[in-house]
Design brief:
single chain
């Protein structure tokens, strides 16, 4: 169980660190900001898509382990099931968060920033501590 928890915690920390590194690089003007501000049609498409993805990923990630089939697999197979399902839960939050941060700096539209902040905060509801991992695989 400890090995699985450490893998998930490493991905969790790496996701947060990557986003923070991007914010630092963009805020210090090492990476250019607002490179796509003229393209309003693509901004609209990306914003609509990311709103749908974000607002779908949050409840799915937070309630993933309450789905009966997944919960049964977690209780039955323990660590073997926890790693793929736990990583999926982290991916559901981390990948859209990273995408929203990049799109915020590409388009300089605060809506992307707010979506990224929502996902960032949700990451802490699924932080893979040892206690959470144990409770996730118990019936």
């Amino acid at each position: 169980m400890e090995k699985v928890q450490k893998k998930m915690m490493a991905y969790f920390c790496m996701s947060i660190a990557t986003v923070l590194l991007l914010v630092i690089l963009f805020e210090t003007n090492i990476f250019p900001t607002g490179v796509f501000t003229e393209s309003k049609s693509s901004e609209f498409v990306f914003l609509t898509m990311m709103e749908i993805v974000t607002l779908g990923a949050i409840p799915l990630a937070l309630g993933l382990f309450k789905i009966k089939r997944i919960h049964a697999k977690l209780v039955e197979r323990k660590e073997k099931a926890l790693l793929p399902w736990g990583m999926l839960r982290l991916y559901l939050l981390a990948i859209p968060m990273l995408t929203n941060v990049l799109l915020y700096y590409f388009y300089m539209n605060v809506a992307f920033g707010y979506l990224g902040i929502m996902l960032f905060l949700c990451m802490f509801f699924v932080i893979p501590t040892m206690d959470r991992c144990q409770s996730d695989v118990e019936g």
